[in-house]
Structure formats: structure tokens, C-alpha cells
């Protein structure tokens, strides 16, 4: 169950990271409110997941999911560069997330 909570928390991290862009520096009310709610929910679920997962593993996976997801959506939604080097390092982050999941604890 902890891994499911952690995956949802990471997915919400992607959402709030993208929400930051849409909030335009917290100048647009609805995107700003949704972004802050996403942040709170994401961190709350991370906190629940750390009840049974090691903090280093949980935090690393959470950050990794958020970073990879935000980078991919940045490429898709905002036409950010998708250079071979960038895609290679995103792939390596996915490998690291899988490695942390495989070796990092139970829950």
C-alpha cells in the first residue's frame, strides 16, 4: 500500500510542478489554488508512505517521479528541448527509480 501512496504522491508532484507554470508565478488564482492543493496532497501522501518505507528510498522515488514526469510534460506541453542527452538522462532517472523500488524497502 505504501508504494501505491508513493506513486500517487509522485504523480501529484508532477501535477503541481506543471501547475506552477500555469499559475504564472501565483498570479492566476485558480491554477495557484490547485497547485497548492496538489503540493499539500503530494507531501501528505509522501508522509504516509514513509511510515513503512525508508525515507531515503521514498523521497528519492518521489522526487524522481516528479522530475521525470515534469520534464516529459515540459517537452510535450511547453515545447521544451528533447535533446538526445536530456532524454538519456531522463531514462537514467527512470532506471534509478526502478532500482530504488527494487532495493529500497517493503511496504
UniProtKB/TrEMBL annotation:
<dbReference type="InterPro" id="IPR045324">
    <property type="entry name" value="Small_multidrug_res"/>
</dbReference>
<dbReference type="InterPro" id="IPR000390">
    <property type="entry name" value="Small_drug/metabolite_transptr"/>
</dbReference>
<feature type="transmembrane region" description="Helical">
    <location>
        <begin position="57"/>
        <end position="78"/>
    </location>
</feature>
<keyword id="KW-0472">Membrane</keyword>
<dbReference type="InterPro" id="IPR037185">
    <property type="entry name" value="EmrE-like"/>
</dbReference>
<dbReference type="Pfam" id="PF00893">
    <property type="entry name" value="Multi_Drug_Res"/>
</dbReference>
<keyword id="KW-0813">Transport</keyword>
<dbReference type="GO" id="GO:0022857">
    <property type="term" value="F:transmembrane transporter activity"/>
</dbReference>
<feature type="transmembrane region" description="Helical">
    <location>
        <begin position="84"/>
        <end position="103"/>
    </location>
</feature>
<keyword id="KW-1133">Transmembrane helix</keyword>
<protein>
    <submittedName>
        <fullName>Quaternary ammonium compound efflux SMR transporter SugE</fullName>
    </submittedName>
</protein>
<feature type="transmembrane region" description="Helical">
    <location>
        <begin position="33"/>
        <end position="50"/>
    </location>
</feature>
<dbReference type="GO" id="GO:0005886">
    <property type="term" value="C:plasma membrane"/>
</dbReference>
<keyword id="KW-1003">Cell membrane</keyword>
<comment type="similarity">
    <text>Belongs to the drug/metabolite transporter (DMT) superfamily. Small multidrug resistance (SMR) (TC 2.A.7.1) family.</text>
</comment>
<keyword id="KW-0812">Transmembrane</keyword>
Amino acid at each position: 500500500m505504501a508504494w501505491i501512496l508513493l506513486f500517487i504522491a509522485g504523480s501529484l508532484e508532477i501535477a503541481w510542478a506543471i501547475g506552477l507554470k500555469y499559475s504564472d508565478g501565483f498570479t492566476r488564482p485558480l491554477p495557484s489554488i490547485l497547485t497548492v492543493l496538489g503540493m499539500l496532497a503530494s507531501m501528505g501522501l509522501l508522509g504516509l508512505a514513509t511510515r513503512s518505507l525508508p525515507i531515503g528510498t521514498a523521497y528519492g522515488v518521489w522526487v524522481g517521479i516528479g522530475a521525470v514526469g515534469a520534464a516529459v510534460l515540459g517537452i510535450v506541453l511547453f515545447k521544451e528541448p528533447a535533446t538526445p542527452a536530456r532524454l538519456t538522462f531522463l531514462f537514467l532517472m527512470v532506471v534509478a527509480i526502478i532500482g530504488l523500488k527494487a532495493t529500497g524497502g517493503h511496504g
